[in-house]
Amino acid sequence: MFFIKDTQSGRHQSLYFTASHHFGADGSNTITVLSNSAFTGNEPITGIRLKESSTYSGAALQINIGQSTSKITVYMHMNEHDNGWVLPSTSLEDTDNTSHDAVLGYGTNPFSGFAVRTTIDLADIEANLFGGIATSGGLVVQKSILHQGSDLGFFGTSAATQQASSTTANPPGLGGPAPPGAADALHADVATVANEVNNLVQQVGEIKAALQAYGLLS
Question: What is the pTM of this model?
Answer without folding.
Answer: 0.60
